[in-house]
Design a protein that fits this description.
Blueprint lengths: L21 E3 L15 H11 L5 E8 L19 H13 L3 E7 L21 H20 L4 E6 L4 H6 L14 H4 L1 H13 L5 E6 L8 H13 L5 E5 L17 H6 L7 E5 L5 H9 L4 E4 L1 H5 L3 H7 L12 H7 L3 H7 L12
Parallel strand pairs: 1-8, 2-3, 3-4, 4-5, 5-6, 6-7, 7-8
Helix pairs in contact: 1-2, 3-6
């Protein structure tokens, strides 16, 4: 395939098609109000990326419960009071011609008590508490639908609560939510099925999955994913890899590309995208050759909010090299709050020149 293929439309099982093969990664940026409401900085960010040429633009991790917070100034959807601000974000995306989604998030055992978070360890929760969290995801999806979003994406990566339940290291429950692979996947599946039942026939549903750390087992994740794809329970899988080119280092898939482990699965009508150091036009095009349906753009989208437009204009486009100065990000339109968030990664912001 050529870079031009990145600009071919992509139909989804529910709702409108993606206008091209670019999805913006769900980027936490710590620029909302302290109560989780969308701020002027959130709206400015969304207006910038809405004009950037992406097909699908999700919010960053958005809390489904107040106690599930992980970051200061994290966007929220755990209250009806959040709906008006979220509706403005959805409108910016719609006016820019793209599809919108809210990434639904609960920090689980990683919730931050200093921010009012209540750590919810898979092992310690009662069955009733697990079911309450499940229902909070479903209620949050209904709020997203009411706010005018095209869909939601479940944050099932990086050890947050859905990922936590999948892990045999973090989940040693003995009830229906622990033990076997099927039981540990139950919370994710109940959330997916509950949202599908509660929302309208055009509402889109994605799932973000990671495979590294937190005791996750690749073979189990592939089995769970195979079932979800075979039953067409979601519209798209967002495979969050540290590096989209990474090779499996051990186990039965040793020597294969991590991406191929999942793109090799029958997917029926479900679309599969991948994130992980996709910073050039050529790499984005190769991702399609390797079996993915679309690419998920993170750091390259922070560096240039219009990455898809840059690729369209220049098939040899490459992102600016890291690290960059704070002034570079500032000049590009990032808020000071977003820049401060990016300082968490020294490889991204060069403080000596900031």
């Amino acid at each position: 395939m050529s870079v031009a293929d990145l600009f071919e439309p992509l139909t989804l099982k529910h709702g409108p098609a993606m206008r091209n093969r670019f999805m913006l990664a769900p980027l936490v940026n710590q620029q909302s109000a302290h109560d989780g409401s969308a701020s002027e900085y959130d709206l400015d960010w969304m207006s910038q990326v809405a004009e950037g040429g992406y097909a699908l633009m999700p919010t960053g991790a958005t809390t489904v419960e107040a106690g599930g917070i992980a970051y200061e100034r994290q966007l929220g959807i755990h209250s009806d009071d959040h709906v008006p601000g979220l509706a403005k974000m959805a409108a910016f995306i719609r006016d820019g011609g793209g599809l919108s989604a809210v990434q639904l998030h609960h920090a689980g055992h990683r919730a931050d008590p200093s921010l009012g978070g209540v750590p919810a360890r898979a092992t310690d929760l009662t069955t009733g508490e697990v079911e309450r969290i499940r229902d909070s995801f479903i209620t949050a999806a209904l709020r997203a639908e009411r706010a005018g979003f095209d869909g939601v994406s479940l944050h099932g990566a990086f050890g947050w609560i859905l990922s936590e339940f999948l892990s045999p290291l973090l989940n040693d429950r003995t009830d229906k939510y622990g033990g076997s692979t099927e039981n540990r996947a139950r919370l994710t599946l109940e959330v997916i099925e509950g949202i599908r039942r509660a929302t309208g026939p055009e509402f889109q549903l994605g799932w973000r999955l990671s495979v590294e750390r937190y005791g996750l087992r690749l073979e189990e994740l592939r089995e769970i994913t195979a079932d979800i794809l075979d039953r067409e329970l979601i519209d798209y899988l967002d495979l969050a890899l540290w590096d989209s080119a990474q090779i499996v280092q051990g186990g039965v898939f040793r020597g294969r590309s991590m991406l191929s482990v999942f793109t090799g699965l029958p997917r029926r009508g479900v679309r599969v995208g991948v994130a992980g150091k996709i910073t050039s036009a050529r790499r984005a095009g190769r991702i399609l050759d390797e079996g993915a349906d679309f690419v998920v753009i993170g750091r390259a989208g922070i560096l240039r909010r219009d990455f898809p437009r840059q690729v369209r204009a220049n098939p040899a486009y490459e992102s600016p090299k890291l690290p960059v100065t704070a002034q570079f990000l500032r000049t590009g339109g990032l808020s000071e709050r977003f820049i401060n968030h990016m300082r968490r990664w020294p490889y991204f912001v060069n403080e000596r020149e900031a």
